[in-house]
Amino acid sequence: MPRQIPACQIPIRSFTGKIQAMKRRTVLALIFFAFFFLPLSVGAQSSESAPLSADDWRSFPILPASVSDGIRLRYRFGLADGNVPTRFSKIGDSNSVHTYFLGCFDLKEYDLGAYSGLAATIARYRGSFARASLATRNGLTAADALGTHWDPNGVCSENESAVDCELRLWRPSIVVVALGTNDVYRSLTDFELSLHEIMRKVLNSDAIPILILKADNLNDSGEFNRIIAQAALTYEVPIVNLWRAMDPLPNHGLRGDHAHPSAGSPRFCDFTAQELSAYGWPVRNLVVLSAIARVTELLSEP
Fold first, then answer.
1. Is 293 exposed, middle or buried (0-12, 13-18, 19+ CB in 10 A)?
2. Which three-class secondary structure state does DSSP give residue 211?
3. What pLDDT, on a 0 to 100 scale, did the predictor assign at position 2?
4. Domain residues of the chain, as ranges?
5. Cα 236 from chain centre
6. Which CATH architecture has domain 20-299?
């Protein structure tokens, strides 16, 4: 325990500095509440304000506001055909590797803070959070997820893509699709074609994809997020505006490489106000966990 210094011995300059630091943390917490919690709640409650153009992707709600009747029906077909209602899969790059992304919920290394209501979602999907998806790895692009020469363990069929293999072996009911960071080094057309093919594969399995608008700043024009937004509109699937959730954070919630979320390591799933107002990883994990909870709720509606 730190040595306690009597209040009369604390220099005035030090005491003033502590107050200023507390004020800064309070302001950051209020900023986070305004930019994250309020848009999250409004987006979840009202679909009328959701933009209809992919060009307006920056204004999309953080969480999905609704799902179409067709998507809800497809989900039910999938369950009837053997998809598991307590499983989800991930398709993504290093930002989706379970060590950092959602894995903490299986490992019980988290603090839900004010979001204790998410405990039911953690219990429902236990086993999916820390599982190593066959369609997630460092450096993955959308085209790579469709490749057939990648399986080092021999668990996939010959000429079976990473996406097809993951869907066949795990039989998820929901699939989190977070791509685009590594695709900035390839053409927009290749990314768009590959993303649409992934959407078709997931939907043909009667699982429901949740698309993630990427938060990195590797492509200033925003064209990759526009493509992701357009795919969500085209296939009427849920979309999460991670960019909007992380943008108000210091350095947009990113490390110095402008590609990976920041963290007060190793607290990737600490949902206290201090962590959520300062670092990208807690926000990414909270937003996606909230999206899984929200989409599960929407899909279960009559």
1. buried
2. strand
3. 39
4. 20-299
5. 18
6. 3-Layer(aba) Sandwich (3.40)
